[in-house]
Design a protein that fits this description.
about 210 residues; mainly beta; eight-stranded mixed β-sheet; five-stranded parallel β-sheet; 18 strands; about 5% helix
């Protein structure tokens, strides 16, 4: 049975992000062996496909993605990546840097670090994040494996005056595989840097 893990926090979390998609969703393809071709919605890099995506779009892999550079997700976009039986392997010290986005990973495949150190998903919220607002929703589908020193790494934003990561929701239906980093240090399935607190509407601010 697939493991279902939910991380719902107020210092580190809140509820899922919902948006009103005013345009019909489309499918965008990533093929590392091809050249960019907007007439077929095909891009040679994952970063290029994500930049082209709009809310509700599905990005479908048509090849493995290797040595992938860091990808910033900070503009509130909501989209899905369908691994489609392919893998995403990040370059050293590269990952999905999720700051403000709603991302769903589906299909059958693996998202991993090529040289484990942090994790393939590093989660910080905006420097001006406030309690009660929703910034990040990450869903890992049941046939997806996420592999790294800490497959899910949740941290506060170093540039924020208040060290928090408000408004994060993570739903995991797939597999988290923690491996030693390249120095040999043992990792964690989910790494939460800080204190996990759950706030309710009646909870005091402190």
């Amino acid at each position: 049975m697939a493991a279902i893990i939910a991380v719902i926090v107020a210092v580190f979390g809140c509820t899922a992000i919902t948006t009103d998609n005013s345009e019909a969703a489309s499918t965008i393809y990533v093929d590392a062996n091809a050249t960019d071709d907007q007439t077929t919605n095909t891009y040679s890099t994952l970063a290029g496909a994500i930049a082209a995506a709009t809310d509700g779009d599905v990005i479908t892999l048509k090849s493995d993605i290797t040595n992938c550079p860091k990808i910033e997700l900070d503009n509130g976009k909501e989209f899905t990546i369908d691994l489609n039986s392919f893998d995403i392997t990040f370059a050293q010290n590269a990952y999905f840097h999720v700051v403000n986005a709603s991302l769903t990973i589906t299909g059958n495949g693996t998202v991993k670090e090529g040289s484990p150190y942090y994790g393939p998903f590093l989660i910080n919220t905006p420097t001006d994040a406030v309690k009660g607002q929703e910034y990040i929703s990450l869903t890992i589908g049941e046939n997806v494996t996420v592999e790294g020193w800490a497959p899910i790494f949740i941290d506060f934003n170093d540039e924020s005056l208040v060290k928090n990561a408000y408004g994060v929701t993570i739903d995991i239906y797939g597999t988290l595989n923690s491996v030693n980093d390249y120095t040999g240090a043992a990792g964690h399935g989910i790494y939460l840097n800080g204190t996990c607190l759950l706030y309710t509407s009646d909870a005091a601010d402190d």
